[in-house]
């Protein structure tokens, strides 16, 4: 509420400054509904919020869209699908927002996506990683920004294949994200390396890993390499217990997401060297788009961006680009505008694919190391999302025709 | 599995059990003496870890700094526990049973936000224990020294507690109060000091349990709820009030978990069984088995005869439908007053459904004397049954909604058969165990339930697509459901239930089969909760396992307590206040969770009989006696 007022005040002040003619005054701001599980996943979503705040400020300074400023009406969705659907309804019918963006956990993202389909309203799923959002349960009205579980897993496959390790152990948080990552990894690796063997699979309850026992069980299976999709406290515990038990000595480890500052930074000197990860080396990316974002972010918040910040920032970039391209707030025109929409982000140019509404935003793939007692990414490269997606025929088969 | 790996996993299990034992011992002690089900115990554990982290950063990562931090955290959390007792709980000991749970629920919300404000969102990885940071090789397996230290500390602490309880005057008083706290008061012991002292020790144990995890677990905001469930399980499996029982139970659960992990995926008779996935719910499986075999836990004893029979209030009169019908009619008119406000309708639909859900729980908690911590199981099962019947069996939505309550009722009939054999908190915990098992089945059964993502596309047919029509349908069905439940309470069946609650022996003596009645009441409550669940599914368009989760069960419990367990209409008021307030606060403030908690605390202190109970009392006082 406070934030919204701030944004409005800022926009009005700006309007007053820019020649006293109040260019936005006729129609008021364009309201966008944003909902997210802020209290459930604060580590990711606090930076995310800063990211979109920055983007809104920049766009409004530059004149907004359709000659009107952007206003974000942000809500906590309580982290459950049931609450999220209610919040979405509130945003649409009370706050009269133009369309919806946001969500973090996959089940909430899918529920809001289904709601958007029912209400024929555009929904840009910013963060949820579930492949189902654009494939099995994809539909016309939902677009997804971030690189999905499948894409990020696929990005790690070339390195995994190169190592020619035969015996793999797998550990994953026991819910859809971890299960999909595991399934994708097994399928993709097996396709390129027929003799691969998966010697143990540990499904750990989210947030409640018994890390010592898991590390021990994996060590007992004597794998050559490990694929993990743990993150957050589970990852930190696994790293600590694995380090203690020398589980990672002489074994290659692949860990989805572990290079994201949200999950890498807490590890500090404990950061395991040489792991292959997907992530975001914020202080080493030198592209102009990223530099501009980085400077503005640090100037505004006196803090460095996390991956969440980029997602929040890019979500608003997509929002504004879609409105500008559509030239109106009509749902069908907006949805049509999103299809094939290309715009710049801190990670470079992305396109929302017409075939499945997935953006081609990529991720940085590399290894992690310790520098001055902190975890950093080394040997990294940017993998464009379009190179990590399955062939179009497969996509068409997975996505229902509607 | 080789012998070496069995030994190594045994040590893992023992090390994991150590902190769990401390938390559970504290919980058990507090419950034994004060009868407070301290929902905030997990939060104290979490704070213990945070405080230890900050202290060690301040004192330096030296042996002195590390162990000093653990001592500091223990004392600080103990003091915090005593403060909570003095500031809040002391004022509501005379409230109906379990009411204190509501206060501790609010404390959980406040602590979580305070921790977020102080320590931030990112998890904090503590240092290894200086001097104990290496590993020892045992039969070719590396075992961290610190794990071994934990394995030694737990039994030492058990010994210390045992000595304190059996050899000191304080311990004698605690044991006496556990058995009969009124008698202890009557004999001139200062109950206030005793209770505050017990809270200090109990909270300090939680703080110590958390602080000792510093080298093993990053301080993070999810710990409170992750730990509290396990702590309850250990306490109940061990037997309420029994410290050695908690010790044995902690070890049992720690070791079972470690072995599930060690077994991984095994094929048994050609079937692939993933023991690793079983860790999602294994502690609840253990609890269910233990409680079915031993109704008072491993080392627990049947509680002393309830003395407080005289205090139980009678139920108010049957609500007169002629007085209530206008209210329902008025609610039905709302869509005309605000035709465009779909959100208002959604909120009212939610409130109507949750009212039915809360009333069905109240039937168990109030008149039947059976507290359920797992009522969401029936809500969730029915929601899934309805969704699956429509989406996969292709039945019309109307049929699905009609059938789903029977599915929930059937499930409740099965679970109830086991549960009614128990009483008090044991019964409540067995319902929780069944609910968690149900939740985990829903969570894992991908092909049928959609797993953790749940099912989408659960929309009603065209004639109900209009939110107004759906609201009317919900209103009518929920009002009917609530009316039937209330009617039932004032039928011979309901009177017999209350007789069984207030005086089971006498009820049996006059030929009432108390257990059988309770069993039917259980199934009936489950079925009506199920009606709510089915309606809920179609109002949202999607469902997920959260509907059967502990959080959903807790919400219902909070609604009933908030409204007033000794009233008839309380649950409805509780459901309305809870749902509306949460929604409103979440929209208006960033730190809505703590504000929500503070509002609940204020209500708890203002209305120790629940909101409706308190208002009714005020009304009686204001109105001149007629």
SSE topology sketch:
The complex is a heterodimer of chains A (402) and B (626).
Chain A: H1 2-17, E1 30-36, H2 42-61, E2 70-76, H3 81-93, E3 100-102, H4 106-119, E4 123-125, E5 142-144, H5 149-163, E6 167-173, H6 176-192, E7 197-204, H7 211-220, E8 225-228, H8 232-244, E9 252-259, H9 261-264, E10 276-279, H10 288-301, H11 307-326, H12 331-338, E11 342-345, E12 348-351, E13 363-371, E14 374-383, H13 392-398
Parallel strand pairs in A: 1-2, 1-3, 3-4, 4-5, 6-7, 6-8, 8-9, 9-10
Antiparallel strand pairs in A: 10-13, 11-12, 13-14
Helix pairs in contact in A: 1-2, 2-11, 3-4, 5-6, 7-8, 11-12
Chain B: H1 3-34, H2 41-59, H3 63-87, H4 99-119, E1 135-138, E2 141-144, H5 145-167, H6 169-179, H7 181-186, H8 191-211, H9 223-238, H10 243-263, E3 265-268, E4 271-274, H11 275-278, H12 282-293, H13 321-337, H14 342-365, H15 376-391, H16 397-419, H17 424-444, H18 446-449, E5 455-458, H19 462-465, H20 467-489, H21 492-502, H22 504-509, H23 514-540, E6 541-543, H24 550-563, H25 570-588, H26 592-606, H27 611-622
Antiparallel strand pairs in B: 1-2, 3-4, 5-6
């Amino acid at each position: 509420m406070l934030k919204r007022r701030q944004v409005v005040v800022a926009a009005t002040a700006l309007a007053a400054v820019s020649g006293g003619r109040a260019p936005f005054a006729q129609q008021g701001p364009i309201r966008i509904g944003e909902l997210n599980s802020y209290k459930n996943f604060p580590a990711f979503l606090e930076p995310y919020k800063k990211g979109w705040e920055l983007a809104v400020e920049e766009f409004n300074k530059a004149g907004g869209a359709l000659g009107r400023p952007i206003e974000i009406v942000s809500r906590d969705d309580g982290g459950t699908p049931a609450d999220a659907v209610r919040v979405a309804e509130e945003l649409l019918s009370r706050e009269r927002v133009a369309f919806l963006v946001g969500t973090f956990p996959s089940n909430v993202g899918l529920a809001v996506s289904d709601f958007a389909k029912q209400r024929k309203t555009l929904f840009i799923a910013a963060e949820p990683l579930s492949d189902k959002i654009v494939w099995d349960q994809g539909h016309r009205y939902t677009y997804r920004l971030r690189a999905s579980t499948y894409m990020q897993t696929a990005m790690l496959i070339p390195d995994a294949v190169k190592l020619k390790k035969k015996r793999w152990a797998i550990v994953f948080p026991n819910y859809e994200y971890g299960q999909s990552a595991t399934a994708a990894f097994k399928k993709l690796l097996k396709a390129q390396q027929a003799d691969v063997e998966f010697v143990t699979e540990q499904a750990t309850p989210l947030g409640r890993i018994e890390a010592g026992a898991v590390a021990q069980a994996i060590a007992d299976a004597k794998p050559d390499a490990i694929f993990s999709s743990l993150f957050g406290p589970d990852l930190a515990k696994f790293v600590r217990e694995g380090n203690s038990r020398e589980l990672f000595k002489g074994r290659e480890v692949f860990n989805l997401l572990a290079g994201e500052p949200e999950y890498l930074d807490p590890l500090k000197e404990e950061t395991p060297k040489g792991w292959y990860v997907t992530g975001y080396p914020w202080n080493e990316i030198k592209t102009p788009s990223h530099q501009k974002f980085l400077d503005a972010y640090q100037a505004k918040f006196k803090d460095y961006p996390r991956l969440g910040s980029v997602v929040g920032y890019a979500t608003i970039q997509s929002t504004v680009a879609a409105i500008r391209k559509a030239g109106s707030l009509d749902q069908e025109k907006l949805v049509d505008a999103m299809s094939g929409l290309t715009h710049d982000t801190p990670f470079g140019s992305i396109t929302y694919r017409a075939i499945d509404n997935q953006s081609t935003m990529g991720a940085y793939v590399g290894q992690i190391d310790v520098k001055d007692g902190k975890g950093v990414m080394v040997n990294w490269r940017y993998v464009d999302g379009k190179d990590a997606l399955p062939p179009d025929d497969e996509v068409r088969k997975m996505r229902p025709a509607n | 599995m080789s012998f070496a790996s069995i030994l190594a996993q045994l040590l893992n299990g023992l090390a994991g059990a150590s902190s769990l034992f401390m938390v559970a011992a504290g919980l058990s002690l507090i419950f034994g003496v004060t009868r407070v089900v301290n929902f905030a115990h997990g939060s104290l554990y979490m704070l213990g870890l945070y405080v230890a982290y900050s202290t060690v950063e301040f004192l330096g990562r030296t042996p002195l700094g590390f162990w000093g931090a653990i001592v500091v955290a223990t004392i600080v959390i103990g003091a915090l526990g005593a403060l909570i007792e003095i500031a809040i709980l002391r004022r509501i000991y005379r409230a109906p049973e379990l009411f204190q749970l509501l206060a501790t629920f609010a404390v959980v919300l406040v602590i979580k936000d305070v921790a977020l404000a102080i320590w931030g969102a990112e998890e904090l990885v503590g240092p290894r224990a200086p001097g104990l940071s290496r590993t020892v090789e045992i039969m070719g397996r590396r075992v961290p020294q610190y794990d071994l230290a934990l394995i030694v500390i737990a039994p030492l602490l058990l010994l210390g507690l045992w000595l304190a309880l059996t050899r000191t005057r304080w311990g004698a008083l605690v044991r006496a109060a556990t058995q009969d706290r009124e008698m202890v008061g009557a004999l001139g012991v200062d109950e206030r000091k005793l209770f505050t002292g017990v809270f200090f020790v109990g909270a300090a144990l939680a703080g110590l349990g958390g602080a000792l995890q510093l080298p093993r677990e990053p301080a993070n905001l999810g710990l409170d709820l992750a730990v509290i469930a396990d702590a309850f399980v250990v306490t109940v499996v061990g037997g309420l009030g029994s410290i050695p029982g908690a010790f044995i139970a902690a070890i049992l659960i720690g070791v079972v978990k470690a072995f599930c992990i060690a077994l991984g995926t095994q094929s048994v008779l050609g079937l692939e069984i993933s023991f690793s996935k079983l860790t999602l719910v294994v502690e609840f499986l253990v609890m269910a088995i233990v409680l079915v075999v031993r109704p008072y836990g491993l080392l627990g004893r049947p509680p002393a005869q309830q003395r407080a029979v005289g205090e139980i209030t009678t139920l108010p009169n049957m609500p007169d439908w002629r007085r209530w019908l206008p209210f329902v009619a008025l609610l039905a008119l709302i869509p005309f007053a605000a035709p465009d406000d779909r959100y208002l309708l959604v909120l009212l639909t939610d409130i109507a459904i949750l009212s039915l859900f809360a009333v069905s729980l109240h039937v168990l908690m109030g008149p039947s004397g059976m507290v359920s911590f797992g009522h969401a199981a029936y809500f969730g099962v029915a929601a899934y049954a309805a969704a699956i019947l429509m989406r996969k069996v292709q039945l019309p939505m109307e049929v699905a909604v009609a059938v789903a309550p029977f599915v929930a009722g059937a499930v409740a009939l099965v679970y109830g058969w086991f549960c009614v054999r128990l009483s008090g908190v044991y019964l409540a915990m067995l319902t929780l165990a069944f609910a968690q098992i149900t939740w985990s089945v829903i969570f894992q059964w991908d092909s049928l339930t959609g797993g953790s993502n749940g099912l989408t596309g659960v929309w009603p047919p065209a004639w109900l697509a209009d939110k107004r029509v759906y609201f009317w349908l919900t209103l009518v069905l929920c009002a009917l459901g609530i009316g039937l439940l209330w009617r039932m309470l004032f039928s011979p069946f309901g009177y017999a239930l209350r007789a069984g609650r207030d005086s089971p022996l006498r009820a049996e003596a006059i030929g009432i089969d108390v257990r059988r009645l309770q069993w039917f009441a259980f199934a009936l409550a489950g079925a009506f909760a199920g009606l709510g669940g089915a309606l809920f599914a179609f109002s949202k368009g999607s469902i997920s396992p959260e509907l059967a989760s502990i959080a959903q069960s807790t919400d219902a419990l909070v609604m009933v307590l908030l409204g007033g367990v000794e009233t008839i209409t309380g649950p409805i008021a509780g459901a309305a206040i809870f749902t509306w307030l949460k929604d409103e606060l979440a929209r208006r403030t960033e730190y809505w969770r703590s504000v929500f908690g503070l509002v609940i605390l204020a209500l708890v202190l203002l209305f120790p009989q629940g909101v409706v109970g308190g208002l009714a009392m005020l009304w009686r006082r204001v109105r001149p006696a007629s």
